[in-house]
Amino acid sequence: MNEEKHYLSQEKYEELTKELAVLKGTKRKEIAEQLEYAKSLGDLSENAEYQEARENQAALEDRISKLELILKHAEITKEHKVGMVSIGSRVTIQKEGEKETQDFLIVGSEEADIAQQKLSNESPLGRSLLNKKKGDSVTVATPRGKVKYSVLEIV
Known about the structure:
alpha/beta
């Protein structure tokens, strides 16, 4: 993972901080206990429980490292530029040739969740919308070809 900024809302920052504390505390202890129990079963070369505990430990340490890096390079999104799409903006767009509109909150990649209308600033559409104003159009390359969107509203 690179050392670029990770844009997070205050809520997401707090959520990740809590998750990190749990992983470093109770989860590490649980896995250490699993390892000790598995070791007590004997021959480690043919011990499936030991292998599973080691895999769980590796996954846990990987997640801890990832969270530490994200939090180290986190930038809390507070205010967004008025009248211009930026991280933290709620934007209403319309695909060319369609009547329905779509609303998205532009967020950092860690918070992206399309089901909740949270669009990553690093996604092709999110990146295209950044710094646009009401009335601007953007063209986004998709697997099915280029799609044009109009910015209808920015909040």
